[in-house]
Amino acid sequence: MLRRKPTRLELKLDDIEEFESIRKDLESRKKQREDAEVAAAGEEAAVALGADHKSREQIINDRIGYKPQPKAGGRAAHFGTFEF
After folding, report:
1. Rounded to the nearest 5 degrees, what angle is found at the Cα of 59, between the Cα atoms of 42 and 35?
2. Distance (Å, whole) CA 41 – CA 47
3. Does residue 80 come out as left (phi exceeding 0), alpha (psi in the -120 to 50 range) or beta?
4. Model-level pTM?
5. Are the CB atoms for 31 and 24 separated by under 8 Å?
6. Sign (positive or negative) of CA dihedral 11, 14, 16, 22
7. Coil, strand or helix: which one is 1?
8. How much is the pLDDT for 51?
9. CA 51/CA 61 separation, integer angstroms
10. DSSP-based three-state secondary structure for 78
11. DSSP label at 51?
12. pLDDT for the residue numbered 68
C-alpha cells in the first residue's frame, strides 16, 4: 500500500465569514424560539390563574371537541327497584 503525505487544509477568510454568519443566524433563531416559549408560558399561566379556571380534563375535552353526555339514570336504572 502506498503512503501519501497528509493533505493540508487551509482556512480562508470566506470560510470564517460563512461560519460566523451561520452561527449568528442559529443564535438568533434560538433566541426567538426561547422568547416564544416564555411568552407562551406566560399566557398559559394567565389562563390558569383566570376566573374561568378549567380542569385539565376539561381543557383536553375542549381541545379535541369531546362533549361528554351525562349518563341517564343512576343505580336504579341498572338494578330496577332493588335496594342494597
Report:
1. 20
2. 10
3. left
4. 0.40
5. no
6. negative
7. coil
8. 46
9. 19
10. helix
11. S
12. 78
> Cα–Cα distance between 47 and 62 in angstroms, integer?
14
Give the list of residues 6+ apart from residue 60 with CB closer than 8 angstroms, or none: 66
CB 61 within 8 A of CB 68: yes
What the block records as the C-alpha cell of 20 is 460566523
Q: Which residue has the cell 503512503?
A: 3
Q: Would you say 63 and 57 are in contact if contact means Cβ atoms under 8 Å apart?
A: no
Grid coordinates standing for 74?
Answer: 343512576
C-alpha cell at 45: 399561566
Grid cell at residue 52: 374561568
How would you write the chain as a 3-class SS string?
A: CCCCCCCCCCCCHHHHHHHHHHHHHHHHHHHHHHHHHHHHHHHHHHHHHCCCCCCHHHHHHHHHCCCCCCCCCCHHHHHCCCCC
Backbone φ/ψ region at 49: left (φ over 0), alpha (ψ -120 to 50), beta = alpha
With a cut of 70, list the residues of the chain below it in pLDDT. Answer: 42-53, 71-84
